[in-house]
Amino acid sequence: MNVDRDTAPAEDALEAGMREVVRKVRTYNPRADIDRLWAAYRRGRQAHEGQLRKSGEPYFVHALTVADILADLRLDVDTLVAGMLHDVVEDTSLDLDTVRREFGPDVAHMVDGVTKISDLRSHNPETRQAENYRKLVFSITQDPRTVLIKLADRLHNMRTVEFLADERQAGMSRETMDVYAPLAHRFGLAKIKWELEDRAFKVLNPKAYYAVDDGVLQTRAARERLIEEVSRPLQASLVEAGVEAEIVGRPKHFYSIWNKMQAQDIPIERVYDLHALRILVRTKVDCYHALGIVHSLFTPLQDRIKDYIANPKPNMYQSLHTTIRAPGGKFVEIQIRTYEMHERSEIGIAAHWKYKEGPGDEHIDFSRMVSWLKQLMEYQEDVTDPREFMAGMKLDLFQDEVFVYSPRGDIFQLPRGATPLDFAFEVHSAVGLHCVGAKVNGRIVSLTTELKNRDTIEILTSKSAHPGTSWLEIVKTGKARHHIRRWIRSTQFEESVRLGRDILVREFGRHKLNVHPDKDLDGVAQEMGYTETEKLLAAVGCGDLTATKVLARLEPREKKPPAKLVDMGKDIYAALLRRRVSGVKIQGLDSLMVRYARCCEPIPGDQVIGVVTRGRGVSVHRLGCSNLANIEPERLIDVSWDVGEEQVFQVKLTVTALDRRGLLADLSDAIRGVGTNIHSGDFKGDHELAVVSFLVEVRNLNNLERVLLAVRRVEGVQRVERYQLN
């Protein structure tokens, strides 16, 4: 809809625009409630009174144009009403309750869906963007019409983008490329997608845009002659075969042309589908009949025949694609589809909308159409980092895809760049979680291999195999990332609960407390801010909460006077007081000189005991250390841990594993994957067995247990031991 401000007053132009919207609606829906449309027009115009766009036009021109775009898509009255009111809650004094009261819950839901969250203004831009997208995606899953309003809104904004500052133009155009054009693609709105892409392309890369524009103009005459040479015999053969068909030229959009030029590193003259035809027929059978006729007249390129009728795209796009060699050696892409398929390819989800105005009309079920979007919400619900959420959302919206097969011949659709791991999780979460390898077209390949169209993938599994954090760097689909993250989080939680339980049982035993960790800590958990006992146990197990703090809640004790030290002379006692201890308390004193025994390398969480030495303070050993066997009992002294959260301790690990390529890298990745730093390492291999030593930095015994667990899961590891001098 265009408003000519030079030839008519603004109000007259707005009313003229509204009459055009009404005219369009009456052509496809004679029963439409026109009074309701006019009521929304008056309400919206009044709410935006006095507001101007950057172009100088009345702001309501934008809202009315959104409704006009929706009318071109032949949408119902509620959607058009919501289109005219889509900015009132965000930009005027009109609130959502008023919209709901005057125009009903459906309109209010759509308006709310496209309204940004107002109480996020204090957050950083990335968080605001992520949360607003979450809200939009959720609204679309509840009512798919919301996405049509949002896309119409963005389309008009891109048509008038030149009125914005350069930086804002670039930002809006990048967002259009990253989110809105792919969103239009996923809902089958090809017309909107192409226009959004071309307008954003023009802003982001004007030099390339005009280069393509010049190339298309220069080749126009030759292209039209070629299309005529193909169309003439093709039309005659279709008539002779009794196939009623319409042959039309298919315009190629600038951004699509540029993408092909860049991806294939070719000049514009070699873009195959720059020369393109579309054959429209009545029935599905006619589609295949027409394909046979095309191939009888021209030689097809075998690797460019695609059947999207038998295998529709997720947005329900259906068509036959083939590329043929035309006279003169040129290539022409031909698409064959029914008129119904063509309508669906142009306006996608909008083509399936059935009106609710009249009795007996059935409302189409869109659950299948938005199932992928619901999965996106499910797979991203546990992502708190806004940057990670945006990256995952853009990936899940990404429009390119590959079609691959299982060994039984089932077809699967995955995003371009997907790996065998993505395929495994697409088959079933259990297959993905136990994947150990893959065969592509009969050959064993790495799990990082990028899949290609028509690959056949077989997944190799093992019950003992489980995901690692490195898998998150391999997979490309939200579904795979979701299941990997959930498994890691679940197993880490279970392992932390087990470790926490063991630690508390040991500590309760040492203090002769008759307390059962699973039965007697509910009250303590609540007091310490945990909703259930298991979460308290997990906090102890992962080191977030010390056993000492739990004991303090169970058994508040008065400070005891320092116990009498073994009488070994004033010189020794003075030496013990030389510096403040770091990490342990000795019989209630916290100012004694301490060192940790190198023979057993104790760390927080170990049961420890102190040995009073001559001139070197107290040496802390693990209970059971072989060097304690010959120590006089009177030199032993009780010690307990008192460690700051930032303190780290070095522990030496010895790993025995089957020698193989990449072993050291996998072990290093496993250790770093649990957040542990490797201080140094040593590797010895004999082509059969390898012995690897690592000096790692850990905070406590729980941290070490997680490192040991991660190392044991590395392929080929036979034994991992904590170093102790014999």
Overview of this structure, please?
The N terminus is likely disordered. A hairpin with a 5-residue loop joins strand 5 and strand 6. The strands form six sheets. Strands 1, 2, 3, 4, 5 and 6 form a six-stranded mixed β-sheet that branches. A four-stranded mixed β-sheet has the order 13-15-14-16, with no helix packed on it. Strands 19-20-18-21 form a four-stranded antiparallel β-sheet, with helices on one face. Helix 1 runs parallel beside helix 3, helix 4 crosses helix 7 and helix 9 runs parallel beside helix 11. The protein is globular, with a radius of gyration of 35 Å. The longest helix is centred in the C-terminal third of the chain and has 33 residues. The protein contains 27 helices and 21 strands. The protein has five domains: 203 residues, Hypothetical protein af1432 (Orthogonal Bundle), CATH 1.10.3210; 139 residues, Beta Polymerase, domain 2 (2-Layer Sandwich); 68 residues; 73 residues, no CATH class; 74 residues, ACT domain (Alpha-Beta Plaits, 2-Layer Sandwich), CATH 3.30.70. Helices cover 46% and strands 15% of the residues. By secondary structure, it is α+β, with helices and mostly antiparallel strands.
Write the layout of secondary structure elements.
Elements: H1 10-28, H2 34-47, H3 60-72, H4 77-84, H5 88-91, H6 96-103, H7 105-113, H8 125-142, H9 145-159, H10 166-186, H11 190-204, H12 206-218, H13 220-240, E1 245-249, H14 254-264, E2 276-281, H15 284-297, E3 299-300, E4 306-307, E5 320-325, E6 331-338, H16 339-347, H17 371-380, H18 386-397, E7 401-405, E8 411-415, H19 420-427, H20 429-433, E9 435-440, E10 443-445, E11 457-461, H21 478-510, H22 522-527, H23 533-541, H24 547-554, H25 570-576, E12 583-586, E13 594-596, E14 608-612, E15 618-622, E16 636-637, E17 639-642, E18 649-658, H26 663-673, E19 677-685, E20 689-698, H27 701-712, E21 717-722
Parallel strand pairs: 2-6, 13-15
Antiparallel strand pairs: 1-2, 3-5, 4-5, 5-6, 7-8, 9-10, 9-11, 12-17, 14-15, 14-16, 18-20, 18-21, 19-20
